[in-house]
Design a protein that fits this description.
2 copies of one chain form a homodimer. By secondary structure, chain A is mainly α. The first copy, chain A, is built from 5 helices and 2 strands; from the N terminus they run ααααββα.
DNA sequence: GTCATGTGCAACCAAAGGTTGCGGGATTAG
DNA sequence: CTAATCCCGCAACCTTTGGTTGCACATGAC
């Protein structure tokens, strides 16, 4: 029910730039800070900071290769994040359904009474 | 595929405190800045700011009542947000599946060849 | 009227996202 | 080998955002 433990993963994917970065890394099969920044509206340094955040929570990992630094998505960790997203979504969805059921019950009761 | 349009809703539910506020509002059937702040680790003013954010994106709406100001969740808008969460989750999930399929295909090809 | 309570507004602080500028390794050209 | 280049990391600085305190105003209780 609670989302307390997973706030780090959440806030990691909560940033629009970071979500687009994950998209780019997934579709491009990895990338560097420079290549990513060319496809994003921010500078290389900003991308590097975001990559640091994603790296810290384990969503990506880096492979130094010569003067480049190739980043790739950790698929298992991203799968975990996706699972948590759907978990929260499912919880809210369930509560919304319950509220709707209760509201309908109240309305039925009022119609019977009135 | 893209999440560009819905960044506002995303970032609204991207904050852990705001998610807990939505939870509290849903389970408690509404609340004021004061009552919410009593159940959260931040001050009333911080809660009020968050309520302002949630109000701006339409996830909650306020009902002035005397000297109080009751906030309630806009269920339709929250349902929209949930849909977008699952949408992004599903997109990533699909891409992860595709990557896994391709990786397996490559491995099969290598086994045949080697 | 007086007192308490809930709100809103303003000033101030700290952290996060973003930018520019610079210096340091690895790679390629000469 | 040297020089130019490219990619990267680090540091300083700015702006926005989440958070706090303090205060003034309005409304309900006495």
């Amino acid at each position: 029910m609670s989302t307390a433990i997973d706030d780090e993963l959440w806030s990691a994917v909560g940033d629009p730039i970071r979500r687009r970065m994950l998209d780019l890394l997934l579709s491009g099969g990895g990338g560097t800070a420079t290549t990513l920044s060319e496809q994003l509206p921010v500078t290389r340094q900003a991308v590097a900071k975001h990559l640091g955040v994603l790296d810290r929570v384990g969503l990506v990992h880096a492979t130094p290769s010569g003067r480049e630094r190739l980043y790739e998505v950790d698929e298992a960790q991203l799968a975990r994040a996706v699972a948590q997203l759907s978990s929260v979504g499912a919880a809210w969805d369930a509560r919304l359904r319950r509220i709707k059921r209760i509201a309908e019950a109240i309305q039925r009761a009022q119609e019977q009474q009135g």
